[in-house]
Amino acid sequence: MTSLQTDACAAESLASDNDAQTTGGRCSSETRATGKVVPLCAHRDDAASAADLTYSRIPSIAENQCVVRSNEWVNPEYKHLVLSAPDLALTVRAGQFFHLACPPSNDEVPYLRRPMSIYRVAPENQRIEFLYKVQGVGTRGLAQLNRGDTLDALGPLGKGFDLPATTGAAHVLLLARGVGLATMAPLAQEAIAAGARVTAVLSARSPSLVMSADYLRDAGADIVIVTDDDQTSDVVQVEHLIRRLHASRPVTFATTCGSNRLLSMLQRVAAELQIPGQIALEQHMGCAIGACYACVRPFRKSAGSDELTYRRVCLDGPVFDLQETTSW
Ligand SMILES: Cc1cc2nc3c(=O)[nH]c(=O)nc-3n(C[C@H](O)[C@H](O)[C@H](O)COP(=O)(O)OP(=O)(O)OC[C@H]3O[C@@H](n4cnc5c(N)ncnc54)[C@H](O)[C@@H]3O)c2cc1C
Ligand code: FES
């Protein structure tokens, strides 16, 4: 796909994005979840001859009209949003995200959509879930959604995690701080389903802000909780912990999200122990479909290189190679 084609289709998509914003992305109804396909991705049909410039249009992104099933507080800062979603939304993979048309809250109207990682997907129940921190105008609007309301979720968007194929016993390490956990949780499900052992190190300010330990444990992950209150979450201690985990069962793939300090430490340790890995990044976004370049960040051209290149977090990520990512 050329960037021109991407941008032309992106513009088309943005037009419908704005339509959704003018309605606030919300209406009260008990209607079934539906999806309006956004013709964003035109994939080259490999079977076509080189002379044939026809592109087969495989819809992979839609403005999904989701219906709220529940939207409950899980602690004083975070809410858990459960939606009925149309089929296309259920194809979302770990690390991908939706661009949500958050409804207005009181007099505040969020002009742009807000990116939100998928927290859980249950295709058998037509369900997608998000875990979000209520912090600004967009998430305050989300927090006011009630059962039966509709929410316009553009997606699935971006490139998710890519678990490497291993011949031996796979051991996946998830290192998550705060809401970074929301992004990592579905990876645990995918890795366990693929036969890997998963260890999730969950870091938070206090034990009351540790989320989803039960969910991850039920999925089959081993859980280690570290908190600021218990003075177990500082980077030096977490580094020792990872080294111990690796010594007892070699880590074959390491992932992180949500903390710059943890990223720098994990890069160093993973490079030394030769563990491949990925990171899910969060970046302010405009369009989330590659058109506006609001989310560009510098990356190393390759692991260990001093040469930088610039990539769009929304389209080239939000999941990137651990060693190519620069800290912020
Ligand atoms: C790919 C992706 C996935 C995300 N997944 C989740 C998720 O699962 N759960 C969740 O709670 N949040 C997630 N976020 C962050 C979320 O999009 C922002 O917190 C959200 O936009 C806040 O909107 P707001 O209007 O409530 O707050 P705003 O008023 O826009 O911002 C509140 C505060 O958060 C900061 N902020 C806003 N957006 C970002 C951002 N993208 N990166 C860093 N700081 C930001 C602002 O600078 C400000 O200090 C994700 C972000 C990205 C890019
Ligand atoms: S947010 Fe527009 S290009 Fe990434």
From TrEMBL:
FAD binds at residues 114-117, 138-139. GO terms for molecular function: 2 iron, 2 sulfur cluster binding; flavin adenine dinucleotide binding; metal ion binding; oxidoreductase activity. Residues 61-163 form the FAD-binding FR-type domain. Coiled coil: none annotated. Keywords: 2Fe-2S, Electron transport, FAD, Flavoprotein, Iron, Iron-sulfur, Metal-binding, Transport. GO terms for biological process: pyrimidine nucleotide biosynthetic process. [2Fe-2S] cluster binds at residues 287, 292, 295, 314. Its cofactor is [2Fe-2S] cluster; FAD. Binds 1 [2Fe-2S] cluster per subunit. Binds 1 FAD per subunit. Belongs to the PyrK family. This is Dihydroorotate dehydrogenase electron transfer subunit. The lineage of its organism: Bacteria, Pseudomonadati, Pseudomonadota, Betaproteobacteria, Burkholderiales.
